Amino acid sequence: MTRILLLGGTTEASALARMLAEAGADAVFSYAGRTAKPVSQPLPTRVGGFGGIEGLEAYLRGEGIARVVDATHPFAAQMSINAVHACEAAGVKLCAFERPVWQPEEGDQWVHAGSIEDAAKALPDAPARVFLAIGKQNLALFAAKPQHHYLLRLVDEPQAPLPLPHTTVEIARGPFDAAGDTELMQRHGITHVVAKNAGGAGAAAKLTAARSLGLPVIMIGRPQVPARPVLGSVAEVMAWLSHPAA
Ligand code: 3Y8
Ligand code: NAP
């Protein structure tokens, strides 16, 4: 039986986990341990980093992993980089399970930012009310623009003081819906949205809300990751897993 490591943390990873569990696959689900109580999965689950490329290679060898599916978020670039190198070193086949980038639609007012730093620079100088929907890890980059009021949506209550002086914190895990995000943005008088081009359905609600409210979105492009086979659906990944030569 081919032993599979599923690098998770996204809606796609959870959908694949359900399919693998139903198929009785010998698979392990992996979380980084970023959140206090991650959603439970129908597969044996490990939580926490592996210890860099070497740690992941040792894990692959020690656990007899034959296939790795990288279904992490497109902004989890370090994990994806490590997976490419560790799988190469351990002679394990790897594929990525990734959702396509969001494309602007009729009525969208997107300002493209090449990085999270560029997104902070793209905000106006005059005080604004910004829905900063990028999570918690990169907030310090926006301390360069302290004059704005920031609406933050976080998975867990912040444990440390936030690096921004004017904030409102909304604790929510997602996936989100357009009606809820429209109401949230109206209630807070939002004038700008900052988003990562995550793709997928779980975080797209704020884009629909921004469109209906006629608000600009500063859209952060994805970081570069090394080339590896990329599949776009659970069915394609299941087929890849069942073909020894793939
Ligand atoms: C720990 C697992 C599932 C997966 C659900 C998806 C959808 C809801 C939308 C907004 C944007 C954001 C953030 C977001 C979404 C899904 C998906 C997705 C964005 C959980 C989860 C883990 C994480 C980590 C967390 C990050 C943060 C990013 C919040 C679980 C809920 C902003 C990304 O507090 C922290 O340190 C949070 C860190 C990485 C980005 C950041 O830099 O702060 N996700 N999110 C995973 C692990 O430990 O390995 O707790 O249950 C998973 C999901 N978050 O199973 O249905 O698939 O994208 N997650 C972004 O897209 O911009 C919220 O608010 O609109
Ligand atoms: P990252 O910056 O790419 O990775 C940093 C380190 O975290 C990795 O080197 C690895 O540690 C560990 N790690 C990351 N994902 C892991 C996983 N699934 N299993 C085990 N270890 C993991 O990652 P991140 O952006 O912090 O994302 C962390 C998790 O949140 C991932 O599961 C990702 O799918 C999920 N997520 C991230 C975002 C986002 O915006 N970044 C959005 C939604 C969900 P070692 O080097 O020690 O192995």
Q: Top keywords for this entry?
A:
246 residues, alpha/beta, Rossmann fold, 2 domains, 7 helices, binds ligand 3Y8
Give a written overview of the molecule.
The protein is an alpha/beta fold. The chain folds into 2 domains: 3-100 and 224-242, Rossmann fold (3-Layer(aba) Sandwich), CATH 3.40.50; 109-220, 3-Layer(aba) Sandwich (Rossmann fold), CATH 3.40.50.720. The chain has 7 helices and 12 strands. The chain has helices at residues 11-22, 52-63, 77-90, 116-122, 178-187, 205-213, 234-242, and strands at 3-7, 26-31, 45-47, 67-70, 93-97, 109-113, 129-132, 149-154, 167-171, 192-196, 216-220, 230-231. The strands form 2 sheets. It has a 6-stranded parallel β-sheet with strand order 3-2-1-4-5-12, with helices on both faces. A 6-stranded parallel β-sheet has the order 6-11-10-7-8-9. α1 links the parallel β1 and β2 (26-31). The protein is elongated. NADP nicotinamide-adenine-dinucleotide phosphate binds at residues 7-10, 30-32, 34, 49-52, 55-56, 72-73, 75-79, 82, 135, 196. Ligand 3Y8 binds next to α1 and β8.
State the low-pLDDT regions, or none.
Answer: none
Number of domains: 2
- CATH domain topology of the largest domain: Rossmann fold
According to CATH, the homologous superfamily of the largest domain is NAD(P)-binding Rossmann-like Domain
CATH class group of the largest domain: Alpha Beta
Q: Element order, helices and strands?
A: EHEEHEHEEHEEEHEHEEH
Mean pLDDT comes to: 96
Strand order in space, largest sheet: 3-2-1-4-5-12
Structural class: alpha/beta
Put simply, the count of helices is: 7
Characterize the overall form. elongated
Small molecules bound in the structure, each named once? ligand 3Y8, NADP nicotinamide-adenine-dinucleotide phosphate
Roughly what percent helix?
25-40%
Q: What radius of gyration results from the CA coordinates?
A: 19 Å
CATH arch. level architecture of the largest domain? 3-Layer(aba) Sandwich
